[in-house]
Amino acid sequence: MKKFTTLAVPYIVWSALMLVLPMALIALYSLTNQGNTIISFSFTLEHYVKFFTDPDFLLILWRSFVIAVKTTIICLLLGYPVAYFIARSNEKLQSILVLSITIPMWINALVRTYAWIGLLSDGGIIQQILAFFGFHDVQLLYTEGAVLLGMVYNFLPFMILQINTALCKMDNSLLEASADLGANPLQTFLRVTFPLSVPGVINGITLVFLPAVSSFFIPKLLGGGQYFLIGNMIENQFITVGEWNFGSAISMIMAIIMMLMMMAVRKAEDRTQGRKE
Predict the structure, then answer these.
(1) Does the structure show a pLDDT above 90 at 82?
(2) Is 216 left (phi over 0), alpha (psi -120 to 50) or beta?
C-alpha cells in the first residue's frame, strides 16, 4: 500500500501545481481590487456584483448557454444515429468508422476551424455550390450559423464516441429476448436500446456542452468578433482590457456553474443506473 502511495506523490504534486494553484490564484484575483498585490490586498465582491448587475454581461452569458444548448442538441441528433450504425456494424467496419471519426481530432482544433473560414468565405466552395443552385449572395461567414457549424464540427466526435461506447457494451442477448417477447424493432429500441445507452448520452452531453459554453476561438474566428460569447469576454478582459480581477471573477462564475452542472449530470446518471439495477 505504501508503494502505491509513494508512486502517487508525483501526480498529487503535479495536480496541486497545475490545477489547484492556478484556481486558487484566480479565486484570489476575483476577490481583490485592481492593482493589489498578494502581500497587500483587500477582499471585495464588486467584480461579481458588476457582472450580475450589468444586463450586457448577462446577455452574453445567456447567449453562450443558448449556443451551447443548440450545439448539444444538434450533436445528439446527428451523433446518435451514427453511433448506433457503428455499434451495429461488424468489428472490422467498426474499427474503420471509429478511426475515420478520430483522425480529424488528431489535427489541432484551431487549424480545423481555420479551414472552415476558407470554405465559408465569399467565393468559397460552399458559396459556389449554393450559387449553382440559385442561392446567390448568401452570407455564410461571420454569422451565428457559422459559429454553430464550427462548434458542431469540433464537438460532434465526443458525442459519437461516448454513445458508441455505451452501445457496444450493451448485451445483445437483451435485444434477442425483446424480439422473442414480441417487441418490434421500434419498441426494442425505445424500451431496451435507448435506456441502456443513456449513460453514454449523458457523458456525450457533458463533453459537448461544457466546452461549447466556454469556447472562445470558434466564435472569434467564425463569428469575426461580431458574435461575442462568455469565453471571448474572459479572453478580452485578460488580454485586451487588462482587468485580470474582473476576468478572474467571470472565470470563477463559469467554473462554479460548470461544477454545479456536472453534479446535476452525475446525479441524473446515478438515478439512471439505480433504475436499471
Answers:
(1) yes
(2) alpha
